[in-house]
Structures are given as C-alpha cells and as structure tokens.
Amino acid sequence: MKQIVLSLLLFGSVVFSPMQTKAASSVSVPCSSLLKPVDSSYPYAMGAALVYKVKLTPGSLRTSISIHALHLPKPSSFGDYDRFEGFAFIPNVISWRFPLYPTPEKDGPTWAGRLDSITAGLENVQVQVRLSNAKTGKLGPVILSNDINYCK
Questions:
Q1: Which of 52, 107, 127, 140 satisfies CB 3.0 to 4.6 Å to 30 for a cystine?
Q2: Cα(92)–Cα(107) distance, integer angstroms
Q3: DSSP classification of residue 75
Q4: Alpha helices (runs of H) in the chain, residue ranges in sequence order
C-alpha cells in the first residue's frame, strides 16, 4: 500500500506540478536604442546606445553599452559641470556610469564612451547621458534618455 501511495505521489508531482514561470527575458542583443532629449530646450541633441556581448578577456561574456551623443549643450551652461557621462541602471538594483569623451570637431564635439563589463541581465535598464563634474564626481541632470526595452 505504501508503494502505491508513494508511486501516486511521485506521478502526481510530475504530471500535476505547477508550471514554472519564466523570468523576464533579456533584451535580444546586439541592438541599438535612440537616446532622446528629456528637455525641449535642446531639440537637436540626440544619441544612440549600442548594446552587445563581448569577450575581451578569458572568461564569460560581458555586455557592452556604448553611447554616441551629439549636438549637446556645453556642460558648463548648466553650472558646475565639465563633461557628460553615460549612466545605465536597473531601478533599485544596480547602476553603471562611465565617462563620455569629446571629439575635437569644429562645430561642437561628439561625445562617446563605453562600458564593457556588465554581467547583470538587461531587464528594465534605463540608459542616459548625464552632466558630470570630473573633479567632484557629482552627477548632474539627465540630458538624453531611453529604456533598453526599446532597443532594436
């Protein structure tokens, strides 16, 4: 009798077990996302974020986020800021920041930079271009932004 009950329990646990829910899937990479201005006072500011997998050293793959932004206002026009930074984050979980470097173009620089060491999943990641002060480390207001879920 015990064997029958045990067999029925095992059979029932396999057949009638609750379906496991699938975690939110990561964004399919490689992909890119437009970074749009958050303020209408700089309508020509625009950027792009490129997201893809890299393996630069022995070990596991990492996610790389690079940003290319142009027609940005001068950082100093917002106060005590001297550069822009890329800022990516999963709300209430983790954030990453990396400097964007200007190119020496005549009519204003193109700001670009990248981070190649992300190991976290990409669900609900926000990507932004923000003002920054290199000496104090102070991170300023958002200039460009988009959600990684719009990455195509």
A1: 52
A2: 39
A3: G
A4: 2-15
